[in-house]
Design goal:
The chain is mainly alpha-helical and 99 residues long. Helix content is 52%, strand content 8%. A hairpin with a 2-residue loop joins β1 and β2.
Amino acid sequence: MEKAGKLGVLDNRFLHYTRIYPSTNEDHALVDATMKNIRGLFYKLCGVRDKSILSSGNFEKLAKVIKIDRTSLNLMFQKMSGNQKHMGLIEFIDLVTVL
């Protein structure tokens, strides 16, 4: 086993693999930042016990922020969740793109 001082400088390559994340492309960085914001919003809206699903009641908290009536939000939630009472992050991302 080599000592830490002999390992050298880490770069973006390992064998035949090349690091792709985080990207140096500005467009990719914008998409990454947007997705992080959407994910953060999802986790803020989720309940305290389970951060993996969003209930329709918690989703309606957005009515105060985006100035859409609760009925419209509820209909959008039902449509995107397939008439379920909860949705996951992927469905939430789809829903946010509609808003």
